[in-house]
Design brief:
Helix content is about 15%, strand content about 20%. It has about 60 residues and is α+β, with helices and mostly antiparallel strands. The protein has one domain. A two-stranded parallel ribbon has the order 1-2. The chain is elongated. The two termini are about 30 Å apart.
């Protein structure tokens, strides 16, 4: 939206790590250096949440 508002044209999207599992559609070509499958859960289904283990470091700091 920002690029379009400035009269630019988005011709592609890039990322270093793609964790979308193919669920993102940018409507332009999308390339990434690496694609990782990261299992996600709703809060009610999360094994760590069920055990009361706090999530203290979210993200992909290490492979």
């Amino acid at each position: 939206e920002l690029v379009n508002s400035l009269k630019g044209n988005v011709i592609g999207v890039g990322s270093i790590v793609d964790r979308s599992d193919g669920k993102v559609n940018f409507e332009v070509p999308f390339k990434s250096v690496v694609s990782l499958y990261v299992e996600t859960y709703e809060k009610e289904e999360c094994p760590l949440c069920k055990e009361g283990i706090p999530l203290v470091k979210p993200g992909s700091r290490k492979f």
